[in-house]
Amino acid sequence: MTRCLLVLVIILAGLVIASLALGDVALSRQDLWETLTGSHDRTSRNAMIVFDLRLPRVLLAALVGAALATAGTITLAIMRNPLAEPGVLGINSGAAVAVMAVIVLLQDPPALLPPVAGFAGAAAMAAAVFLLSWRGGTSSLRIILTGIGLGSLAGAATTFLSAFGDIGDVQRAMIWLAGSVYDASLAKVRFLFLWLVIPLALAWMASRELDLIRFGDDTAKSFGQPVDRTRGLMIVLCTLISGAAVAAAGLIGFVGLVAPHVAGRLVGPSHARILPVAALCGAILVVAADLLGRLVIAPVQIPAGIVTGLIGAPFFASLLWKRRHARG
């Protein structure tokens, strides 16, 4: 596992350096080194590009990727479904309808209101999914079906708002929904980091509980695990992590599905190993997606959520294919 972590850290470091150096204004290795080390030879233009524009963006992308991957790992364990991801809990749909409502219905909302509304919508929808799926206890199947139903309802509300809202407001909302870290700042990075420290640590500390619940309710109960309470607490933890990531960067899809599966193949089924590896894989995926989105058709920038969708859709199809043939 140590070697795997080292390789992933090296890959992530390489992507970070590339993200700092490449863009509309490319920086040479010497320029980048002088800027990062605070050399007297650095220029104010290069310092502005690196520290004000690119560094906050790459740090936010890494944090968001790690958060989405961790939330996806938790979701896969408690749902025991290889196709599950945080969107099953209503997090994405709740955030989408809340942000669309704020941008379309309010005149010139404060800049901080859409992210706050996104987190509130994600939390409210996750709570509704859990409560409506409660029948003297919880089950992964009821949660998934309830999440699909409420997600469809929220999707209809989002479509309604976009159909009758002002075209300018709808366009701004759709940019947020596409998922991007273009408006990153060091203040946002600092806030997201401080928010995620405790939930991510709790997720790693709960790795044994995730190992147990993954084997099924009956097996987990035979080992003394309070399954319903554990599943509820894990959903709260997942909402805190994924909801914060969605509030910070919009809807960046498939990271919570791809990263845990890649981590499982690299280090095996133990969540004590999967969680840190998945976090690194998620960070790599979002940082790479943001970098590709900036470079492929520059100066036009493709939102990171669109790039991860292009990567994740074939991965999702391959999972469906494997499940179909495994049952056959």
UniProtKB/TrEMBL annotation:
InterPro entries per UniProt: ABC_BtuC-like, ABC_transptr_permease_BtuC
Bilayer topology annotation: Multi-pass membrane protein
Pfam families documented for this protein: FecCD
Keyword Hydrolase: no
SUPFAM superfamilies: ABC transporter involved in vitamin B12 uptake, BtuC
Record bears the keyword Cell membrane: yes
Keywords from the named record: Cell membrane, Membrane, Transmembrane, Transmembrane helix, Transport
Family matches, as Gene3D superfamilies: ABC transporter involved in vitamin B12 uptake, BtuC
Subcellular location: Cell membrane
Transmembrane segments: 58-79, 86-106, 112-132, 144-165, 185-206, 233-259, 271-292, 304-321
UniProt record similarity statement: Belongs to the binding-protein-dependent transport system permease family. FecCD subfamily.
UniProt name for this protein: Iron ABC transporter permease
Organism phylogeny: Bacteria, Pseudomonadati, Pseudomonadota, Alphaproteobacteria, Hyphomicrobiales
